[in-house]
């Protein structure tokens, strides 16, 4: 069965510090990978996506993620966190073989301290 | 571009009544729309996939007679929660994708509270 694991439920970082949010997946097909961000009471905004090609992808708001097939991971990074980055982050995986339906991780809540 | 509008953003209803939630793609044609449910502090769970002009495909465990989905046009899908009960209270989010593109764009969600 397809699954997505985000090991960290909460992460707290200081403003200006670097950030890495972890995502591991188990999928029986070539995956498409996404990171979305959700502010409280809001829908999801796409940060970045990986379909194929260069395994380091750049997204909006200064985020990037690296696809590592050998580790089945797609970790999200940002070199310097801003207070406005505080939100919940979801990793999601889809595949053409599964009708492009997305399976989401449980989410990681990011807190930014000043 | 790629804006998805969801309405209403918040609805309170009495137990036993029905509630309709609309999901519109404002600047693209959505051949496929998805409906998700999100419980507090949990992730999104796919309820159903809706293709324009055809019946929705429901995920296992989702009652199709309780959650009626209509996708009558390329820009509008509706979810009707019939005979709502307090356990149906949740955050419902729709998403839409165009053609063969593999990106889903999400609405802002609807918070349903059933009293």
Question: What are the SSEs and their pairings?
Answer:
The complex is a heterodimer of chains A (114) and B (115).
Chain A: E1 3-5, E2 10-14, E3 19-21, E4 24-26, E5 32-38, E6 44-50, E7 56-58, E8 64-68, E9 73-78, E10 87-94, E11 103-104, E12 108-113
Chain B: E1 4-7, E2 10-13, E3 19-25, E4 32-38, E5 44-51, E6 57-58, E7 67-73, E8 76-81, E9 90-97, E10 105-106, E11 110-114
Q: Can you walk through the features of this model?
A:
The complex is a heterodimer of chains A (114) and B (115). Chain A has no helices and 12 strands. In chain A, strands 2, 5, 6, 10, 11 and 12 form a 6-stranded mixed β-sheet that branches. In chain A, strands 3-9-8-7 form a 4-stranded antiparallel β-sheet, with no helix packed on it. With 114 residues, chain A is mainly β. In chain A, a hairpin with a 5-residue loop joins strand 5 (32-38) and strand 6 (44-50). Chain B contains no helices and 11 strands. In chain B, the strands form 2 sheets. In chain B, strands 2, 4, 5, 6, 9, 10 and 11 form a 7-stranded mixed β-sheet that branches. The model of chain B has no long low-confidence stretch (mean pLDDT 92). The interface between A and B is medium-sized, with 23 and 22 residues.
Integer average pLDDT of chain B? 92
Stretches with pLDDT under 50, minimum 5 residues of chain B: none
**Tell me, what's the shape of chain B?**
globular
Quaternary structure of the protein: heterodimer
Total number of helices of chain B: 0
**Count of separate DSSP helical elements of chain A:** 0
Main sheet specs of chain B: 7 strands, mixed
Largest sheet of chain A, in brief, is:
6 strands, mixed
Order of helices and strands of chain A: EEEEEEEEEEEE
Features:
heterodimer, A: 114 residues, mainly beta, six-stranded mixed β-sheet, B: 115 residues, seven-stranded mixed β-sheet, four-stranded antiparallel β-sheet, 0% helix
Concise synopsis of the structure shown:
The complex is a heterodimer of chains A (114) and B (115). By secondary structure, chain A is mainly beta. Chain A is 0% helix and 51% strand.
